[in-house]
Each structure stands twice: as C-alpha cells, then as structure tokens.
C-alpha cells in the first residue's frame, strides 16, 4: 500500500490541474471548429479569473463572481469577434492583442481597486466554490482500493470540476448531434456553403465565440475561486497556450480533448510530485523538462509523427461574401 | 481573397490611417487611466517629459528603442513572407545562450571590438537555428508556424531556466544568472552623442547596439525592396500560389525568411546582455519579443516605420517608468495595455476606419479613390 496512496494523490492533483485546461480547451474547440483561431484563450481566462475573484469578494457571493467572470470573458470574446468577423482582421493579431490587454488591465485595475499589488483580497468561505463531499465518502475511505478512489478522486471536488467533465459529453452532443453543431462545424470547413444555405456566417461565428467566452470565463473562475482563493497577477501562467496545444493534440475532438488535458495535467502533477526525487531508471528528472514536455509533444504531433493533426479547413480565414 | 477596399492616396494609407488607429488606441488607454482615477492628460505630459525631458531620459528611450527595432524587424521580415513569427521572444531568449558562450569564453582575453562581432554572429546563429525547426515544419509538414513558435517560446524558456539555475550559474551563487562579464564583453556607451547636444547624462545603458540596429534596419530595407530574395519573399507573402507558379521554392523561401527573422530576434539579446546587465539572467527578454509585434504592425512593416514605432515604444517604456513613480495607481503594466490596444487597433482592426475615410475622400474627389471601379458596390 506504500505506492498506492501517492498514486491516488498524483491522480487527484491531475484532476485538479487539468480542469482549467479542459475548460479552456473545450472553449477553443467551439471557436476553432467555427473557423476562428483563438490564441486569446489565455487572456480571456485571465480576465475571467480577475472578474470572478473581484466580484466574489466585493459582493460576497461565489455565484455573482462566476457570473461576472463569464460576462467579462464573453465581452472579450466579442471584441475578438468584432475584429476578426465583422472587420475581417487577422485573428492571430487580434488574439495577441486580447492577451496583452488582459494581462495589463487585470494588474492595473486590481492595484487601483484593491491596493494589494495586483492581488484581489483573499476569498472568504461562501465567496468561493467549496468541495462537495459525496454521500458516504468518509465511511468508504477505509475500504481498500475502491475506498480512496471514491473518497479522493470522485468525491471532494468543487461543482466546477464536475461541470468541466460534464461539458465533455455535452460538447460532443452539441457538435455532433444538434443542428447548431452541424452548422458550426460546417462554417469552419466551408463557410460559403453555409452562406449559400441562407444561414448567416457571421452570426454563427459570433455564437461560437460566445460559447468560447462562457467556458474561458468558467476556467478563469476555477483558477481564482477554487484553486487559489483569490486572483494573483498572471495566474494563468501559459495555461491558455497549453490548452491550445491540447486542442491540437486532441485533433479538435471533445473526448480526445479530455484525455489530452488529463495527460498534460498529469505531467504537471507528476513534475510537482517528482521534484527532487530520483526515478528508478532515468534518474533525477528536471522540473523544466517535465514542464516543457507538453509543448515538445505537441510539436512532435504537429510534425506528423503521431498521426496527423488536420485543423478545420476555413480556420483563420475571414469570410468575405461574394459580391 | 479579393479585398473589397478601394485604394486611397499613399499619404492617407501610410500616414493618416495609422495615425487615426494609433490615436484611438491611446484614447482607449486614456479611458483606462480615468478608470483608475487619474488624469490622462497629466499622465501623458509626465510620460513625454520622462522620456524626452532630460538627457538621461532620452538615452534610456533610445536604449529601449534599440531592443524594439530588432524585434520589430524580426517580426516584419517574417510578415513580408506571410509568416507570423510569434516566436521572437523565444528566439531572443535562447540567443542569450550563444552570447553567454562567447562572452564567458573570451571576455578575459579579447577586447570588446573582437568579442562584439563574435557575439553578433553567435546570437544571430542561435536565433536563426531556433527559428529553423518551426520553419522546416511549416514548409515541409504544414504545421502552423504560429502554434509551433508559441511552443518553442515555452521550450526556450524551460531550457534557459534549466541552464541558468544549473550549469551556467557560478558555484556558490544563489541568483539564477551567469557570472558578470569582464571588460572584454562590455559594450561602449553612446551617451556622449547626446551629451554633444549639451544634455547631461548620469548613467544610461545606451550603447553601440543602437548603431547596429540602425544598420540592420537599412539592410532589411535593402533585402526586402532591393534584392531578388526580398522580391521572392514578398511574392510568397502576397500569394503563395503565384510564387509557386513562378517557380519559387516554397521550402527555401519559408526557411530563409524565418532564419533571417530569427537572426534579427537573436541580435536583440546583445543590447540588454552586453550593453546593460553584463550577464545573462532569467527572463532578460521580458516581453520585448511581443512588443516587436506591435512595433512591426505600427510601422507598417517598413524599416523606417519600425524605427519610429520602436522609438515611440521606447518612449512609453522610459516614460512609463517615470509615470509609475509619479502616479502610484499606474504601474508599468499600463504599457502592456497600450501595447495590446496598439496591436488591436493598428493590427486586427486596421481597416475599421477605412470605409469612412474612403467615403470622406470620395466626397471631395471621387477620382482619388478610384470610385469608377467600385461605384455602388458598397465597399
């Protein structure tokens, strides 16, 4: 049993660390499937995290915080839409801009409003989402093997964690079993065909971006209101980019996205766990190596050595109606 | 893709529209200043005075501008070839390794004017090599260069952190950086040029890299508009299909453009490393690569525009430091917002005001905007 408990602990932190990745990754899935590249996931998560923690601590309500996180994140998504759909600007340039505005404004506004060096006040109980203990979790803890799995892995997470994993089948259902999903995928592959069918390409893409904004908002709220108990500047720390990598790794499919995020979350959890401890065969693994691994894996995948990642065909191209 | 926008006179295209976009970016930034409870006009005055009021301020402004000229040129060279090199940051960071190797090996034996050329070559080479893999993957495997260069930024950061907390750190030191360079790897300052004009400078890091940056700006102009290679790059950037039809090798042109871009990004590292800090420290690039995107877009990808835009951003950096001192509510992160807004309005939304300006021009003289060609199409 000496090896079993550490494994459970690593898997538990894997789940915790992959939730923001998963939410952001699914967020990116909606927009990229609709033909809008979004490297602004990072920025939208960041403003979501800030708005969530700020509103929760001012209004003393976790729900208001979550609502505000979603609202602000959607607003940023709409700016991206305004630039890249309405004005046919370069989607990557617009995403970069959003990341900068987010990084700067969260620090400036945080400092001006709370005077704690860019932090928001530490959230009190009731202002953050608490862990939900499932019935019988404490009683089951002593049962060998299944007990710890039930008590640690399945029970004891906040509502947002369950929401994130529920979004995986839901996203699959939306994309592959609803009319909206069919059109959304079509607009990412061949917008002209969608236009010919009399459906507005722009409105469809805007709706996809609103979905993106909602999910990045929840991802941000998770970071500042579940994982951390307050906003810290630059707290996304590249998670938006890892989510983007996971999206490519998952070849733009929801269920794959979950596994990719769990894999990247596991690498993160393992690197924290293994800090300084030598492994049996390879010896001491440096933290930096583990941190770089998701990026290296994605590059190798992109190079076509692990299957081929084919993006939606109309991705990154603004749609111009024939005149 | 056909562009539905009609032509404007050149001065409006290269002067008026960027100016309007820039003004809008600054107006929005002004609103942010108001939101934190400060007066935007007073902020602007402090900013400009901080950057140009004293000799020291000017020297610092030009020091920052040097960095941004390199990264702006880097982004622009790739952009002329239709490639978005978002990896300038990583290429510059990893180039610090090349400089470290040269400086740590030769700083005790060679004078600066021998170390400097070696370091230029090393930084350019390392930067170019770091851009080579994403370029190759784009050219041969079709992997999107934006994604791969983002990944390479993170990989570069991991490698540099690993080296700087491990092998490159002198024994017994706690700080994650190399040992300080000796005199043989310290670049001479250029402050005396500003002092010629009678201004006093206490201590500022403006150094010979500024001249190197200007030379590079000229060479980039020469490359893009006066050589066959530059013509091929612009052709490919304009229409990959046309380039292929004209027999331009896609692989060769993408790899060449990205390696030049990476080399320019790498040279950026010379300025802070050899000109100012005299060591390679963690995160010494600190976002300058991303500023390059804003600079290149604002400068309309032309070296002259880039030098001007770089000086403007140098002014924001130097003036921003003064501003943070005078107005505690505004930290230097204000610049990050301005940078984002400039990228948004001068880059992603660059065509937002064009239809209105076009309509305005058309009402004065229809001929100047070629109205015959587009009449009634609602462009």
UniProtKB/TrEMBL annotation, chain B:
Membrane topology, record value: Multi-pass membrane protein
Subcellular localization, as worded in the UniProt entry: Cell membrane
InterPro entries, per the entry: ABC_transp_permease
Cytoplasm recorded as keyword: no
Principal cellular location given in the protein's record: membrane
Keyword annotations of the record: Cell membrane, Membrane, Transmembrane, Transmembrane helix
Keyword Ligase among UniProt keywords: no
Full protein name: ABC transporter permease
UniProt superkingdom: Bacteria
Transmembrane segments: 12-37, 57-78, 113-133, 145-165, 204-224, 253-274, 280-297, 304-324, 330-349
Any single Pfam family the record assigns to this protein: BPD_transp_2
């Amino acid at each position: 049993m000496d090896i079993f408990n550490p494994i459970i602990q690593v898997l538990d932190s894997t789940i915790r660390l992959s939730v923001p990745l998963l939410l952001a990754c699914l967020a990116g899935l909606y927009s990229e499937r609709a033909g809008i590249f979004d490297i602004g996931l990072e920025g939208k998560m960041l403003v979501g995290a800030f708005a969530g923690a700020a509103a929760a601590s001012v209004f003393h309500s976790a729900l208001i915080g979550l609502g505000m996180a979603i609202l602000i994140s959607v607003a940023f998504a709409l700016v991206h839409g305004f630039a890249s759909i309405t004005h046919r600007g370069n989607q990557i340039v617009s995403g970069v801009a959003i990341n900068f505005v987010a990084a700067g404004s969260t620090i400036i506004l945080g400092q001006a409003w709370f005077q704690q060096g860019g932090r928001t006040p530490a959230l009190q109980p009731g202002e953050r989402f608490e862990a939900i203990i499932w019935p019988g979790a404490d009683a089951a803890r002593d049962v060998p093997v299944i007990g710890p799995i039930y008590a640690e892995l399945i029970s004891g997470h906040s509502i947002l964690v369950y929401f994130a994993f529920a979004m995986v089948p839901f996203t699959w259902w939306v994309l592959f079993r609803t009319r909206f999903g069919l059109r959304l995928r079509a607009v990412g592959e061949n917008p002209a065909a969608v236009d010919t069918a009399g459906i507005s390409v722009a409105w469809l893409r805007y709706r996809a971006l609103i979905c993106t904004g909602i999910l990045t908002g929840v991802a941000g709220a998770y970071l500042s209101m579940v994982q951390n108990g307050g906003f810290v500047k630059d707290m996304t720390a590249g998670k938006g980019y890892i989510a983007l990598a996971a999206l490519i790794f998952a070849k733009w499919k929801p269920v794959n996205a979950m596994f990719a995020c769990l894999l990247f979350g596991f690498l993160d959890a393992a690197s924290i766990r293994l800090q300084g401890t030598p492994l049996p065969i390879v010896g001491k693994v440096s933290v930096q190596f583990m941190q770089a691994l998701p990026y290296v894996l994605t590059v190798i995948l992109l190079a076509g050595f692990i299957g081929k990642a084919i993006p939606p065909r109309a991705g990154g191209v603004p749609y111009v109606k024939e005149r | 893709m056909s562009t539905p926008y009609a032509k404007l006179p050149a001065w409006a295209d290269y002067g008026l529209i960027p100016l309007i976009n820039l003004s809008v970016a600054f107006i929005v930034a002004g609103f942010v200043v108001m939101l934190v409870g400060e007066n935007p006009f007073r902020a602007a005055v402090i900013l400009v005075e901080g950057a140009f009021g004293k000799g020291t301020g000017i020297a610092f402004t030009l020091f920052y501008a040097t960095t941004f000229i390199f990264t702006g040129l880097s982004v622009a060279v790739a952009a002329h070839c239709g490639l978005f090199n978002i990896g300038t940051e990583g290429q510059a960071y990893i180039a610090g390794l090349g400089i470290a190797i040269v400086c740590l090996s030769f700083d005790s034996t060679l004078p600066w004017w021998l170390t400097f050329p070696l370091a230029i070559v090393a930084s350019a080479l390392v930067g170019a090599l770091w851009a080579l893999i994403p370029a190759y993957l784009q050219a041969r495997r079709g992997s999107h260069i934006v994604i791969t260069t983002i990944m390479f930024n993170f990989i570069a950061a991991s490698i540099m952190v690993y080296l700087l907390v491990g092998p490159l750190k002198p024994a017994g030191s706690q700080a994650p950086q190399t040992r300080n360079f000796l005199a043989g790897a310290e670049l001479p300052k250029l402050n005396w040029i500003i002092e010629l004009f009678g201004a006093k400078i206490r201590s500022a890091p403006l150094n010979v890299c500024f001249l190197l940056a200007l030379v590079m700006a000229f060479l980039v102009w020469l490359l893009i508009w006066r050589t066959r290679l530059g013509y091929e790059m612009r052709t490919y950037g304009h229409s990959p299909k046309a380039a292929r039809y004209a027999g331009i090798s896609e692989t060769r042109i993408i790899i060449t453009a990205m390696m030049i871009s990476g080399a320019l990004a790498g040279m950026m590292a010379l300025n802070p490393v050899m000109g100012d800090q005299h060591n390679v420290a963690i995160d010494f690039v600190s976002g300058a690569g991303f500023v390059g995107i804003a600079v290149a877009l604002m400068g309309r990808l032309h070296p002259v525009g880039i030098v001007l835009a770089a000086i403007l951003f140098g002014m924001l950096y130097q003036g921003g430091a003064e501003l943070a001192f005078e107005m505690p509510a505004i930290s230097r992160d204000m610049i990050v917002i301005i940078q984002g807004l400039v990228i948004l309005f001068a880059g992603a939304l660059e065509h937002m005001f064009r239809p209105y300006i076009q309509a305005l021009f058309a009402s004065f003289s229809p001929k100047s905007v070629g109205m015959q060609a587009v009449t009634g199409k609602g462009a």
